[in-house]
Protein 1
Amino acid sequence: MEWRRKDSREAQLYSRCVIALTTVATMLLAAMAIYSLLSPRVSVSQSVPSNCRLLQKDMSCLDPCKIVLVESIPEGLQFNSSTTHPSIFQAWLNLMGEARSSLDIASFYWTLTNEDTGTHDPTAYQGETVLKKLAELSGKLSVRIAVNTPEESQPKYNLRLLNDSGADIRTVNMQKLTSGVLHTKFWVVDKKHIYIGSANMDWRSLTQVKELGAVVYNCSCLAADLGKIFEAYWFLGVSQSIPSPWPSNFSTLFNKDTPLQLPLNNTPSDVYLSSSPPSFCAAGRTSDLQSILSVMDDAQSFIYIAVMNYLPTMEFLHPKRYWADIDTQLRRVAYEKQVKVRLLISCWANTPPLMFPFLKSLASVKNNNPANTSPLQRLFVVPASHQQKEIPFARVNHNKYMVTDKIAYIGTSNWSGDYFVNTAGSALVINQTASQTLEPTVQSQLKAVFERDWNSEYSTPLTQHSHTRDFC
Ligand SMILES: *[C@@H]1O[C@H](CO)[C@@H](O)[C@H](O)[C@H]1NC(C)=O
Ligand SMILES: *[C@@H]1O[C@H](CO)[C@@H](O)[C@H](O)[C@H]1NC(C)=O
Ligand SMILES: *[C@@H]1O[C@H](CO)[C@@H](O)[C@H](O)[C@H]1NC(C)=O
Ligand SMILES: *[C@@H]1O[C@H](CO)[C@@H](O)[C@H](O)[C@H]1NC(C)=O
Ligand SMILES: *[C@@H]1O[C@H](CO)[C@@H](O)[C@H](O)[C@H]1NC(C)=O
């Protein structure tokens, strides 16, 4: 990991020049340079004393980070578009191929084989391959898995196999800790590469469910920060309660106000990781909700959102509770700033019918802009053959991202209150607005994904008169 303050970098250069003179004095200088290189280095595991804010301004990450958007496109879906990205399956194979010392996985549940789902579908082979390779790696290097405590009825074969192969597994009892679930899905490899996105450790997430994520290679600064979120889950796997406050080594310097500055695909970028629920956020960490609200607030011309579920309620809480933080922000920016709002929502057999009246209500927000900038919505339906219909909980758009004229936000949460109040999730927020670059930005790539899906034959406008029973 390369943490340098500008002055220490200069000191290092300076010392290199002087060393060429090879005198006793230069050796002294070199010693001083090394000292100055070491002393101002701010370890990421340090807490955030208030005087660090200024220091942090001079700090940037020198890793040659490479980011790749990755997708699972369900079997049979075809787009008339040149917008394509490597598969999540391929990304996971690459990451396992790169792994030399450690692999940490935060996960909701594990069903990577046909056996787990009581199916005989040939497209399970990708998930089965991933499980096999993970089991091989578990014998060779440190593989740690944090998983939501499985219910009695959930299959345990994957975890048992990995445990027997040498992986370290901790179950996080979210039900007891927050009455939620651990819904996060990310990987940290060799404390250097990361994956984050919507795909579960489920064979269907590779071939039968539409998913989106990002892999960042060679990026230890970012991996160290995601590693802290992993360590929190790891800690909660053995702790009976949530620390408050969290020990200072869990805190971060990087958040919506002081993002991490690093090159992504040679483009200077501001990046941070947000996390939910708020009780899991150590000092310095922006909560998922705050990151979403601030990204919306920062938008000037458009906000495109692709999520499976969108509900201004607590979906799983009884008695019922209204929860409109995100909905209110969207209405506000659509009304006050005339920002163009588009929502691409998923429609499948398990869609809560309650979602549609709320969406129609959001769509009725009008503003003074003569160009119709009312929030528009479309429903994305993944069609299924007879055989595909037999696969339980598949054939759905499970993406969870947002793209504005400035920001790419890639998350792991459904958009209803529960996911921001008591469920564990996380998101990668990328800001490349300030940069001039020839390479396509993540924001422009994510926008292209949204437009491809929005304009595809799989999406249907939701109007005030739509009867959703007709097409879900
Ligand atoms: C692709 O374009 C063809 C011809 O315009 C059209 O018939 C078809 O429905 C399109 N397919 C998709 C998936 O959009
Ligand atoms: C993993 O295996 C050990 C024995 O090697 C056992 O004690 C432990 O309960 C297992 N853990 C899980 C999560 O299956
Ligand atoms: C990561 O860095 C290594 C060493 O510099 C390089 O060989 C490799 O190609 C890089 N990986 C990616 C995906 O850019
Ligand atoms: C902080 O320190 C504790 C105790 O040594 C350790 O269990 C935990 O994993 C550390 N947290 C991080 C983020 O490294
Ligand atoms: C993105 O970066 C620009 C330029 O540095 C800044 O003005 C803006 O506030 C940032 N947006 C967010 C949501 O962080």
Protein 2
Amino acid sequence: MSFLKEYDSEIFDLCELELERQTDHLEMIASENFTLPAVMEAMGSVFTNKYAEGYPAKRYYGGCEYADKVEQLAIDRACKLFSCKFANVQPHSGSQANGAVYAGLIKAGDKILGMDLSHGGHLTHGSKPSFSGKNYSPFYYGVELDGRINYQRVMDIAKIVQPKIIVCGASAYAREIDFKKFREIADEVGAILFADIAHIAGLVAAGEHPSPFPYADVVTTTTHKTLAGPRGGMIMTNDEDIAKKMNSAIFPALQGGPLVHVIAAKAVGFKYNLSPEWKDYAKQVKANAKILGEVLIKRGYDVVSGGTDNHLILVSFVGSDISGKEADAALGNAGITINKNTVPGETRSPFVTSGIRVGSPALTSRGMKEKEFKLIANKMADVLDDINNTKLQAEIKEELKILAQNFIIYNQSTY
Ligand SMILES: *Cc1c(COP(=O)(O)O)cnc(C)c1O
């Protein structure tokens, strides 16, 4: 980063501080990850200078011969990765991808049925503050007190609501999603089935979570969560008609010029996801989340649904004095970054909550395995057991910093 250092030392210094923060803390936010230096290099490439409105071989600007190749490579790799026929790699984010699904397939005011935000769904699944809840008529299903989706209940709700689109996929759900059951529900009411695999895509790509194909009509994902690629979104389908609608919904309906540098970085990320190492990574992500849950249960904590099938766990403090907000702050003081989260049987406000969400993808990317996760889970329990003990938090922070520094993210010359 020598150009940046010379030209803008303020931003350079903040990059340095952020690298230090990422290095010294244990990143356990379930939606975060560390991408490859090669991905970052592509993101910082000359393709940031290029306008390429349109799609490969159908552009509104000249000079797109290399941009076309980049985008086509990204599309081909995405289709190979998820075994599907069509992919749109232009969405600037997961939310933009979801916006295109609604904009392309239904009309304003149409009914959508998604997972309640407070039960693990995403804002874009019909939540009131989001465009999805404002422009459409949202209805919700949730989880039972055991933290699992009851598919019969979803069926009952769908029959009453008669939605145009059913959204499945979540941001805070620790169990496998049964896409086949969702297909049956969608068929029963004649709805389009939309799977949002933003959180689990990396596991799906590795065969470590069932695929939404062939069940879902349309699938969206982010590329920066478990996929460990650059920040961005993507839409996939096997239906040519839907593919065309998605293309025009992204451009020109919702977005202008694609971020060709990010599309290049997506292609690099997919190359990693297609490699044999990726399967090992995804397996390790699951193994690490599993042991995290097991240790916390052993230490007396209520892990929602009794464990996990994926990359995250939810811990519930319902019925205890601890709130999610306090747990978040205490763990933060101990160098462990997580987020507070609503949990089944929630009694507190979304700003306080009675739970936390903890994920394994980022630390797994740093090379940590069961041994480290076991140690970290025990430290988490130590902090939670004595939540007002700031001296203990400071001690643990120092210990964990040494552990973290042994698992290098990027060396100085690669970031
Ligand atoms: C993260 C997430 C999104 C949105 O992704 P952004 O890139 O943050 O817009 C959409 N859906 C689900 C299920 C998510 O978890």
